[in-house]
Amino acid sequence: MSTEQQNTYNQSLETMYQKGVKNMYDNGIEHVPVKYILPAAERPNANAANSVPEVNLELPVIDLAELQGPNRSQVLESLAYACQNFGFFQLVNHGISEEVTSNMVDVGKRFFEMPFAEREKYMSADMSSPVRYGTSFNQTNDGVFCWRDFLKLVCHPLPDVLPLWPTSPLDFRQLGVTYAKETRSLFMMVVEAILESLGLKTDTDKKTEKYEDVDEVVGIKNEIENGSQLMVVNCYPACPQPDLTLGMPPHSDYGFLTLLLQDDVKGLQIQHRNKWVTVQPIPGSFVVNVGDHLEIFSNGRYKSVLHRVLVNSTKHRISVASLHSLPFTSTVRPSPKLITHTNPRLYKDTNFADFVAYLKTCDSKKKNFLESRKIEQTQ
Ligand SMILES: O=C(O)CCC(=O)C(=O)O
């Protein structure tokens, strides 16, 4: 092949990769292209001793209905335990109906089943675009691509962004809006419990008790209420050689909390005691995880844990992540109540601009953003 032919060929491959993995799958791809092959040490089965069979993982289960009853204090203890030791828990009896969750997964699936020409309308290289269809983790910077396509939707404030959301499938907006509103309310309920589990009382009537933290707590709650919500519909098509690649590389989530809805195909793994363990889907539940903001706010008490996604050779997988963060203009810092002589401040102030600047330079998010916010301890 002449150099010119080689360049044209490379260009056409690059165009194909930018269109995403669902498009490659639909065109009958039989081997994972080199662009998706991870170095041996980063593949799913690298260091097999560091991954344990799925059955070994018992992610704590939090029953939200119990939180409203006489067992609230025990549930708060379990919540604190989960956030400290796993950074993750499964949420059941959360009050969002099966109809709303299954409709969301279904309409997400139907979005990715539409012809590429229809999905392509939402492609954008602009990271701040309110609606963005794309592939891999960060397709502008990723050296090795991962086996995922996604649709990202800014959800707040809804009236501003809704006119930009996809118009097809025809019921996408209606089902997506219901889902976004219900997950936002659920998020607020979980946050309330999390603040209480950190020893920060949240009831507004505590004001009358001259509760000393109340201003701080009301402040953080207001910020959280006005915070951003981003919904990401992830599509992981079946992959001909799943051992060579990942659906998503190890990363932690930037925001305060993530509520993840997954279909019945497993794939999510979290890092626990230096091993990768698989989260078994519990039908109808949410997987909830601590994000970087909450780790910083809790001054390191609650952990924003690395997670990744495996793909498999036979089944497509759909997940819908609802990522909740403080407003883009807020500064995130440890709660003064959680800084003590024995537990000094562990993190620098941080904001969204720091994160965007970081994203522009990194190959994949990994844990480094949070690491970069840590204050070096002198002893
Ligand atoms: O698909 C999953 O199970 C995880 C998705 C995820 O980690 C994310 O959207 O950040």
Describe the structure concisely for a colleague:
The chain is of the alpha+beta class. It has helices spanning 3-19, 21-26, 64-67, 72-85, 98-113, 116-120, 158-161, 172-197, 214-225, 292-297, 352-361, 368-372, and strands at 61-63, 88-92, 131-135, 149-154, 228-236, 248-251, 257-262, 268-272, 275-278, 286-290, 307-309, 317-325.
- Helix proportion: 25-40%
Count of helix runs: 12
What order do the helices and strands follow? HHEHHEHHEEHHHEEEEEEHEEHH
Number of DSSP strand runs:
12
Instruction: Identify the overall geometry.
Output: globular
The domain count comes to 1
Structural class: alpha+beta
> Beta-strand percentage?
15-25%
Pfam families: 2OG-FeII_Oxy, DIOX_N
Organism: Erythranthe guttata (Yellow monkey flower)
Family: Belongs to the iron/ascorbate-dependent oxidoreductase family.
GO cellular component, one term: cytoplasm
Note down, in words, how this protein is organized.
With 379 residues, this protein is α+β, with helices and mostly antiparallel strands. It is built from twelve helices and twelve strands. An eight-stranded mixed β-sheet has the order 1-2-10-7-12-5-4-3. Strand 8 and strand 9 (275-278) form a beta hairpin. The model has no long low-confidence stretch (mean pLDDT 90). It binds 2-oxoglutaric acid (AKG).
Task: Indicate the topology.
Elements: H1 3-19, H2 21-26, E1 61-63, H3 64-67, H4 72-85, E2 88-92, H5 98-113, H6 116-120, E3 131-135, E4 149-154, H7 158-161, H8 172-197, H9 214-225, E5 228-236, E6 248-251, E7 257-262, E8 268-272, E9 275-278, E10 286-290, H10 292-297, E11 307-309, E12 317-325, H11 352-361, H12 368-372
Parallel strand pairs: 1-2
Antiparallel strand pairs: 2-10, 3-4, 4-5, 5-12, 6-11, 7-10, 7-12, 8-9, 8-11
The protein binds 2-oxoglutaric acid.
